[in-house]
Amino acid sequence: MCRLLAYVGSPVLVADIVLWPARSIIKQSYDAKERKEDGSMHGHLSLGSLNGDGFGIGWYSDSIVAKATDPTPCVFTSVTPAWNNENLGRLSCKIVSPLVFAHVRAAMPGMPVSEQNCHPFQWGRYLFMHNGMVGGFMRIRRALLATLSDAAYDTVQSFHSDSAICFSIFLHHLPSLSVVQTPQALLQAMEATINTVLASQRAAGVTEVSLLNFVVSDGSTMLATRFIAGSEDEAPASLYYAEGSAFQRSPHAAASDGTAAGASDAYDGRGFDARQEPCSPTVNAATARHTSITGEGEYTLMYGAVGTRVVLVASEPITSSAAGDWVAVPRNTVLIVSHNKGGCLNLLSSPLGACCAKARREEVARCLEAATGAAEVASRSWSLQRPPRGEADSTPGSLWLDGKAKVVAGEEQRLSGHSGPVLCLALCGERLFSSSTDLTIKVWDMAGGQCLATLTGHNKPVQSLWVAREHLYSTAGRYLRVWNIAEPSFPCVRVLQLPRNGGALGALAVDANNHIYVAGQDSVVRGFRPESCAADTGGVNGCLKVATGFECWRLGSLEFVRVLRGHRGSILTLFAFNEARLLLSGGRDNLIRCWDMETLVCRRTLSGHKNDIMSIAGLAPAAGPTASVAAAGGDGSPLGRSSSMERSAALFFVSASMDGTVRLWTGQSWACLQIFTAAAVHAPMPFLSAAVSARYLAAGSPDGQVRIWGTAEELLAAPAGLLPCATGHGAHSAAADQPVSSDASLRDDCWRGAKFLASLLESLGAEIKLSRPIEDKHPIVLGRLGRNPDRPTICFYGHYDVQPAMEREWLTHPWEVAAVNGYLYGRGTSDNKGPILGFVYAVKEMQEAVGGELAFNVAFVFEGEEENGSKGFKEAVQTNLHWFEGTQLIVISNTLWVGEQVPCLTYGMRGMISASIEVKGPQRDLHSGNEGGVFNEPLNDLTKVLASLVDGSNRICIPGFLDRVRPNTLAPALARLDNSAEFSLSGYRDALGVPQLVRAASTSELLRARWCEPALSVVDVRLGSDDDNGGEIDPFYRFGPTRFSVIPHAVVGNVSVRFVPDQDAEELITALRQHVDTVFAGLGSSNTVTVRVKSVGDWWEADPESRLFKMAERAVAREWGRAPLFVREGGTMPVASALEKMLGAPALLVPLGQASDACHLANERISRTNLVRGKNVIRNLLEEIAAV
């Protein structure tokens, strides 16, 4: 069997991975056993198992200039034995490369032995090698060649070699041979290569086993497969991988357990040196003879403080297996190694073949996209910035930054003792535990600043610490140790060991029952029972190695729940607030994400850090060594570091970053309160770990020191509004919150509104999901009650967000429901919380009446951005269409009656185009006294353009704007309104408060203009450009001072266009632009004009004669004892037409509120009678549908 080795990482001398390791692939090839033993030969030369079928190495240049001009690799092959090739010794001692392939060949019987057949193969920028065989190759060779394009056929380097032809098949499946491909494209080509081989075998009836261990690289990304086909019983060819910060010769003999590890990330104040340590034997080209023998020695993987910098893939481990560095690649799996920022590597594993379902492929693609996206995130050290003039704190020496976060420059105390970077910290009362790459754990007395003890026993850097009751848990390599911290000597009382080929332990959690959960390098989560070395479960394989998202598992059963994603690049740290049901994550995209663990949705993204976020920690328990520390969410939250906190405790947490800062945050307003930096050094000091308590903040540094700050004063001095209680699980009333979607400071209220509705739907027995496809937008609440495909599905839409309530005219508290004279007053009572509750309770009453399953399914969709543009709504629905399967009717209750007494049904609404007309002139504002009258002023030009849009009767003057208006759309409404006292011209005029109406010779003329004809309104004129201040409103425009002497350099006029059936929005936009350009050209102005379309919402219309509309009519009449009026509205509800198109079902608009409900205004209200009887109307409608 062939042997192969691939290395990716910091530039390395080829001899250090190919020749000198005591278990190099050259030594592994001895298993071929091609001749008898000869005891007269020296050392291993006496063995009778030397491989003589050839070898090869391939490498890429270490020169950045060379890579840019010539990205192709170099290859050296020979048919002589590798152990006896002096040229290999000479080259290996001179070549330094960041990516090396090595292959020792064992030819199949009958296959020519020639350099042409030796691996690795090279074409263009690609290197390829193979360990294994294609079953029945001679029978399918022609079929395989027939699949190749002409260009790929020309790349075949040996028609005798199954490996060479497989390489050409891979090249054939690439989108292009001349363009650098993404990791996703390389993965797709590899999958297609294997599928091509399997398809040819099936067509030819081949049953022989195929072993397809392929390794391919383009010089940046590397893929390695371990794949077997043809037999479920046979084992695939072996393949292992290892990762670390460096690979180098051991400076001393291996330890008793086979390990010899240390830190390779040397920090010198300027950064981490990622190059290999030169501890290889001194060899030059002239003395390279037999260096594979004389230079042999033990090598080891080193583990540093910051990320993976080296990845090796090999047929067999090339270091001591006892070290636990190597992980066996699972059967039918591909490894993808790609580069990340800062010289780090991403390592991802993905299943291949039939076990790789479509959903899994999509998951891998998303991981790859996120992992490669981190390379685009800029990273730098944080630097102190002085605040704008007038905003500095009066306290001497303090500065404001990042939303008035105070900067604390310089620590109060340092703890020195570690000889390597400090990787982990854990605070427990007055004790601090720290671990380092120096393989030790130190116990510190915080009060005295002294080291109480140094705990030894680990032979790898300690990667995680966890304090629970009287025990300290630590992981290093594949070992977990438990220390008794209640005893003065801190003895080790228990040792757990991961399987030998499982790699190192990377994560640790301990729950309230002392169950231990660990996640290994092999992507498996394992649980252990208390006082036992036996695993609670067989482990759960997460499959994906790179944590660009993280998977949630239920503690105890380790049942998979969901993948949470959103970060670009790897997630480096997790922290959970158990009682508050919050999880925090930090990653390589410099962001902190705050996850709600009840809904499994990201609530907030915190920015401010300028580099990787290495650690997040919350307030530590204050009860001393016996304090309880629990794994996150014992009832279903994901694994993560957390401290058990009283529900009344404030939510404070800290984040440590490579940018040289530690930030203190509050969980109520998500504000950064303070920024801590190290005392002045010649370069910012990165931070790798952090811990916080009510008295101390500790941060670990690469220089081996722990820096300490006091926090008690800062936490006590925090404003009262920043000291929240844990959120808990109490229900919030639907009206008490302030879910104003346009106000970023009220995001938590919007979240509480969404969670209230989710809980309400769950009380009905509905499935629920919160979806948020757009970052920083409020979630869409999805619900599903029943999934019987033989029953109709009714979809109900509503929105839980509201308008602000800043008007002084409010007679009651706008955020508390007040019952006054039969009306319920409060913001959102009519628009749209009241109608939502009416529909939900109509369903609830029907459930109670039938005592079981309803005769129909119900789909709920409630959005939280309707008052703010509905961004993300369409994406959420389209992504979750399976929640709406079988929808036959959409019910919306977000309109009003035309009057006060008679119920209505809405059968039509206009569409809307929001556009801006901007005129730009000089580069800056000018003084009207000094410069007025000598140039074309933008505001004068804009005024003339706006005046040309409509005439004195508000008729639109734009050519073509009145085309395609459908006639007679008012007829259904007039048939009932003519005999009703609900609407009159005088009453309507008085309600508007205008002295006179235009186009109001009759009710029908006014309603036609109001409901059935297009309209154009100038709704705002702003000084300045949309491009100024990032689109933000100039504060001087909003609040003063007066601008009577200032000529604005640019002005924007905002217009609202309403259009009707059967008009087309794009045609109207074109007509508007042409008109504005024509009028502006006629002015002869030197300024410029631009028309921008901000949003478009389509018109909507229902057929009053349709079967469903007739059902709604009967439902209203049954409750109110009279037929409803049919009305149109001049307003726009884009969601109605959007849902109809997406769900393929008609919509019904059933208004509950009266015309006087004052939606969006002060004293919004809804009649108690209307709310209750409106609920009954909905129930009647549902009963009508159930009876069909």
From TrEMBL:
GO biological process: glutathione catabolic process; proteolysis
Keyword annotations from UniProtKB, A to Z: Hydrolase, Metal-binding, Protease, Repeat, WD repeat
An annotated Gene Ontology molecular function: metal ion binding
WD repeat positions: 415-454, 564-605
InterPro entries: Cyt/Met_Dipeptidase, GATase_2_dom, Ntn_hydrolases_N, Peptidase_M20, WD40/YVTN_repeat-like_dom_sf, WD40_PAC1, WD40_repeat_CS, WD40_repeat_dom_sf
PROSITE patterns listed in its UniProt record: GATASE_TYPE_2, WD_REPEATS_1, WD_REPEATS_2, WD_REPEATS_REGION
Pfam families: Peptidase_M20, WD40
SMART domains xrefs: WD40 (SM00320)
Gene3D superfamilies registered for this protein in UniProt: 3.30.70.360, Glutamine Phosphoribosylpyrophosphate, subunit 1, domain 1 (3.60.20.10), YVTN repeat-like/Quinoprotein amine dehydrogenase (2.130.10.10), Zn peptidases (3.40.630.10)
Cross-referenced PANTHER family: BETA-ALA-HIS DIPEPTIDASE, DI- AND TRIPEPTIDASE DUG2-RELATED
Designated name of the protein: Glutamine amidotransferase type-2 domain-containing protein
Source organism of the structure: Elliptochloris bilobata
